[in-house]
């Protein structure tokens, strides 16, 4: 009799848990298995870590005026970043390409990493005001007027639709 009550209580807890996931992630909880729960909750932990890291970046950021000389996506080893940055990067990420900006800050020419979301907005051969945290550019504003936003690339089906409509 007692084990029957425990099973019912466990079942109720699992139902509440499933309902929470259903509302939080907008998915049908009847199709979720244990692996899905693990993925969802490990994702939540990653979100918390990312929020903490973002807060640290914002706390250490400074506003600088710089002239952007060049920008590009380069492998970490070829980017010209300090050796300490490369050594602190995990080995599996050292071959990945990172957005790199070469800029003149005052009299110095520096190589800086850039946030991937901001990278398309960074203008070449123009002066900007940027929030920089260490060697990481977190935001960019135009010094003389607003920055030009690049046009969104057309997807495959949009290109095909345009070709068909031209005929």
What does the model show?
With about 170 residues, this protein is α+β, with helices and mostly antiparallel strands. Helix content is about 40%, strand content about 25%. The chain is built from 4 helices and 5 strands. The chain has a 5-stranded mixed barrel with strand order 1-2-3-5-4. β4 (about 125-135) and β5 form a beta hairpin. The longest helix is centred in the N-terminal third of the chain and has 26 residues, at about 35-60. It is globular. The chain starts with a helix and ends with a helix. The relative contact order is 0.11.
List keywords for this structure.
167 residues, alpha+beta, 5 strands
Strand content: 25-35%
Oligomeric state of this protein: single chain
The run of helices and strands is: HHEHEEEEH
Q: What proportion of the residues is helical, as a percent range? A: 40-55%
Detail the poorly predicted runs: none
- The mean pLDDT is 80
Beta strands, count:
5
Envelope shape: globular
Widest sheet: strand ordering: 1-2-3-5-4
What structural class results from the helix and strand content?
alpha+beta
Layout of helices and strands:
Layout: H1 2-25, H2 34-59, E1 62-75, H3 83-88, E2 97-105, E3 108-114, E4 127-133, E5 136-142, H4 156-166
Parallel strand pairs: 3-5
Antiparallel strand pairs: 1-2, 1-4, 2-3, 4-5
């Amino acid at each position: 009799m007692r084990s029957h009550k425990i099973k019912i209580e466990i079942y109720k807890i699992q139902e509440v848990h499933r309902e929470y996931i259903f509302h939080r992630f907008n998915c049908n909880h009847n199709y979720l298995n244990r692996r899905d729960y693990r993925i969802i909750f490990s994702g939540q932990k990653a979100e918390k870590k990312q929020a903490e890291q973002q807060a640290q970046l914002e706390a250490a950021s400074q506003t600088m005026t710089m002239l952007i000389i060049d920008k590009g996506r380069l492998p970490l080893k070829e980017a010209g970043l300090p050796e300490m940055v490369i050594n602190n990067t995990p080995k599996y990420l050292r071959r990945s390409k990172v957005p790199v900006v070469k800029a003149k800050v005052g009299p110095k020419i520096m190589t800086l990493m850039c946030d991937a979301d901001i990278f398309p907005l960074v203008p070449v051969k123009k002066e900007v005001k940027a929030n920089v945290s260490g060697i990481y550019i977190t935001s960019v504003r135009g010094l003389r007027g607003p920055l030009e936003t690049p046009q969104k690339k057309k997807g495959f089906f949009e290109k095909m639709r345009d070709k068909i409509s031209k005929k």
